[in-house]
Design a protein that fits this description.
Layout: E1 2-4, E2 28-32, E3 37-41, E4 57-61, E5 68-72, E6 81-82, H1 83-86, E7 88-92
Length: 94
């Protein structure tokens, strides 16, 4: 399965979906420009934590090209998930 990485200032992640799309989780994001990193954490109120295991590839806005993306579970059980290392990344123009 492949997916699109979308981010925005919304109340619910369902507001980021287009017709006939599904969401496999979400959370919050922070840009760490000094480290060239996008840090993801938390969970979506309407879809829960991202289920990375369902994806083989991820399409990311081309404005984020070259940045590393890491999801931090911060639960004491899971290691951070380095998206760039585990998924095939493709870039798309908005």
């Amino acid at each position: 399965m492949d997916g699109y990485f979308r981010f925005g200032m919304v109340g619910l992640h369902s507001q980021l979906l287009r017709q006939d799309e599904q969401c496999i989780g979400g959370g919050y994001y922070t840009f760490d420009i000094a480290s060239n990193l996008i840090v993801l954490d938390g969970m979506s109120y309407d879809f829960g934590r991202p289920r990375w295991h369902l994806l083989e590839s991820l399409r990311i806005p081309s404005a984020c090209k070259g940045m590393q993306i890491v999801y931090r579970y911060d639960d004491g059980f899971h290691d951070d998930f380095n998206v760039n290392e585990h998924l095939s990344i493709e870039y798309y123009d908005l």
